[in-house]
Design a protein that fits this description.
elongated, binds zinc ion
């Protein structure tokens, strides 16, 4: 399960800047705007999940099927909520990295992550090599298997 925040709009905006130094001010500004929008969207979504679907199944009136449905959708909501929260965290980390100008560089090895990968995953914090290593590690330790980049 890999969360991608694909954005054609983002790609177009970066393309429109033309040839630039990697993570130039103009590019960082485009990524920042995109990530702020994403952050906003995730916060709204988080509120929706909390407000609408995380009801206590015990409080549902109706027959057993209604209760079973309520329990299922409450479990789904919790799973989505966890995923959403993890994405919010990585978007916040990315926004912070823009401020410190670490954005676009791998947190592990310091290499450039690359514009293409940053456009397809604007909250990525590792390059492909380090990400692959991390995924392999997570496979050996399923408890840490939360891959949102
Ligand atoms: Zn790396």
């Amino acid at each position: 399960m890999k969360e991608r925040i694909m954005s054609k709009d983002l790609m177009n905006k970066i393309d429109a800047l033309g040839a630039q130094e990697y993570m130039s001010d103009a590019q960082l500004a485009v990524f920042e705007e995109h990530l702020r929008g994403e952050h906003e969207r995730l916060i709204v979504r988080q509120q929706e999940i909390t407000n609408t679907s995380m009801k206590n199944p015990e409080s549902i009136s109706g027959d057993e099927a209604d209760k079973a449905n309520a329990i299922q959708s409450s479990a789904d909501a919790r799973a989505e909520s966890e995923k959403n929260k993890a994405m919010l965290r990585s978007v916040s980390v990315a926004l912070q990295a823009i401020k410190t100008r670490d954005y676009g560089y791998c947190i592990k090895c310091g290499e450039e992550i690359g514009l293409k990968r940053m456009i397809s995953q604007p909250a990525a914090c590792r390059d492909i090599e380090c990400e692959t290593l991390e995924e392999r590690k997570n496979k050996q330790n399923p408890a840490a298997n939360l891959k949102i980049s």
